[in-house]
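User: We ran a pulldown and think these components assemble together. Before we commit to crystallization trials, I'd like a predicted model of the whole complex to look at. Sequences follow.
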Amino acid sequence: MRQRSPQTWRLIRDSAVGLMADRGFDAVSVDDITAAAGISRRTYFNYFAAKESVLFDPDPDDPRLWAELTAARPAGEPLWTALHQLILAYTAAAGAEIVRQCRVIAASPSLAVCSRETCDRFWDCARAWAAGRDTAATDLQLDLLINTARAAFSTVSARWDVDTGIPGLHALIDEAFTLVISPEWKKL
Amino acid sequence: MRQRSPQTWRLIRDSAVGLMADRGFDAVSVDDITAAAGISRRTYFNYFAAKESVLFDPDPDDPRLWAELTAARPAGEPLWTALHQLILAYTAAAGAEIVRQCRVIAASPSLAVCSRETCDRFWDCARAWAAGRDTAATDLQLDLLINTARAAFSTVSARWDVDTGIPGLHALIDEAFTLVISPEWKKL
DNA sequence: ACTCATCGTGCACTGAGTGCACGATAGCCC
DNA sequence: GGGCTATCGTGCACTCAGTGCACGATGAGT
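Assistant: Here's a predicted model for the assembly, 376 residues in total across the polymer chains.
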């Protein structure tokens, strides 16, 4: 991949999401995007490897946000609690972007699969961060814990009504993270 | 979608997977597949909506297998245990196909995302089956339980060395399902 | 002025996926 | 047997995604 300027990245992203929010993902071609952004087709693919990428690629600013959020977690905090708080903080910070993305995805079922990639970024970071903490957990335990948190989140985000906004999402997250840690729920 | 004959379905599937096992997914075009199967390009797309579909679409025989496996679960069995046993039985039954698929996917990283769809089919069935059982669980509890099981499975399948075969996979599944249900693992 | 890195562009090409109309075969009914 | 119909494979033309490559504009350093 060639080098990329952050301004062009934003320009393409904003043009594309704008069009897709209006017409839906499938009704917008790459040519439409490049026309709206005033760039060439080839430049588009210098920035985004595929049509979906313009929705799902990480914001260049993301690593900075993640560093900030993890730095705020106290040292001795149990991992489960920390993950709970991190996901609240992350969804709060990226709120507007998330809601916009969810609307486009919801309107175009063919995108449902790809949407997982967005979450994966978060959980990959979480995994790396958790592994760097002082803990007695084995690799397998860590993976299971992270993936269970991921499962809790994906469960509630599937039930989330986008119109309730981030507060509605947070209420569901709290409920799920509490349920999973309760001792009796697996005897169902 | 037009009507389809099971023989043609199998013919295309087998030709495609054969080629992909040899050369890798990306190096096989739809034209290669249709040439190998002795059918036309258009017929291919009458059977499979996309190139990946030939790997990931459910075997027409799958519903029968699923019905058989769930019928074998005793009525009062805790859901977690039942899911544990179901996934052992399913991976045992579909073993050869799974190993073959995993090899192709492992050799072509661009397919990693799509591979989730295969698992989704299993867990969708599991969810529907669990909802039909007599249980005091709420919808949210059921979803969380299913998705936690899914997380446990996806954790171990990511760590699975395909060359250890289905027995190796089963050992990992047993370990994970035991760990997750143990009371202390979330205090890490 | 020269050089070099950066980054946008034009073009030609491959391959995925679709809409549509046609054709071959096989069963069925009179 | 002749005509009807459902099934299912096929050929063709087309759109759009994605790539390799060479060129061009700009701007900074010397």
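The domain at 6-55 of chain A is CATH 1.10.10.60 (Arc Repressor Mutant, subunit A). That may be worth checking against your pulldown data before setting up trials.

User: Thanks, that helps.
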